[in-house]
Design goal:
Blueprint lengths: L2 H30 L25 E6 L7 E4 L5 E4 L2 E5 L5 H12 L8 E7 L8 E5 L5 E3 L7 H7 L13 E4 L5 E4 L2 H5 L15 E4 L5
Parallel strand pairs: 6-10
Antiparallel strand pairs: 1-2, 1-5, 3-4, 6-7, 8-9, 8-10
Length: 214
């Protein structure tokens, strides 16, 4: 074999080794998640969480002994409601008990010692507490937060991953901790049934699912 042919074959062998090494590196990155991002803690829910009303919720307002003042009403996009003898009242960001006390104050001008109960019958929640799923989910969307909500609950709600998702490189952006980022293993959780990859969500979490490199 001539010297030029030998050098050419050596060159192509090195190219093949380099390509194989690049693929192995990429696969390792997909399997282990983003570099320099800590894994999400398994427990994240707080015991003192209290649901607050958001635009799009539906409220059932009951005024004791005054059925003509009782009604079901949606929360408008501006976070307010209107009711008999209560022209406009801001309810977004408040608990149902706080809203009930506010309505009692409004009605006390017209009704003696009003007793009001407010029940949330349809839940959307404020924007700051909604769970958002973006990227390679089957149905990217926002979800109302529920106490003890887990990553698996979220993935069931959005229909799982697309064929192009790099699930083990997904991350959670935790707005309640100053946009701190955590790595999660969606492939291990959904495709391999690894329950150790299931973690609790926090209000305002953003789940980001990237596309696979190949």
């Amino acid at each position: 074999m001539s010297a030029p042919s030998s050098r050419l074959r050596t060159f192509w062998n090195r190219c093949r080794l380099l390509t194989a090494g690049t693929i192995v590196t990429a696969l390792a990155a997909c399997a282990t998640g983003p570099a320099d991002v800590p894994p999400a803690p398994a427990a994240a829910a707080t015991q003192d969480y209290t649901y607050v009303i958001g635009a799009g919720d539906s409220l059932n307002i009951i005024v004791w002994r005054n059925p003509e003042l009782s009604l079901s009403v949606p929360v408008r996009p501006d976070g307010k409601v209107s009711a008999p003898l209560v022209e406009e009242l801001v309810v977004q960001g408040k608990t149902s008990s706080e809203v009930a006390r506010d309505i009692e104050k409004k009605l006390s001008t017209y009704v003696r010692d009003p007793v009001v109960t407010v029940i949330v019958t349809s839940f959307v929640g404020p924007f700051s507490e909604q769970i958002r799923v973006v990227g390679e989910a089957a149905r990217p969307q926002f979800l109302p937060f529920r106490q003890k909500m887990t990553l698996l609950d979220v993935m069931i709600a959005v229909g799982g991953l697309t064929d192009f998702a790099s699930g083990n490189r997904a991350t959670i952006l935790r707005t309640s901790e100053g946009n701190k980022q955590y790595a999660v293993r969606l492939n291990d959780l959904i495709k391999r049934g690894d329950v150790s990859a299931n973690v609790e969500m926090r209000p305002g979490d953003i789940l980001i699912i990237p596309q696979s490199f190949f």
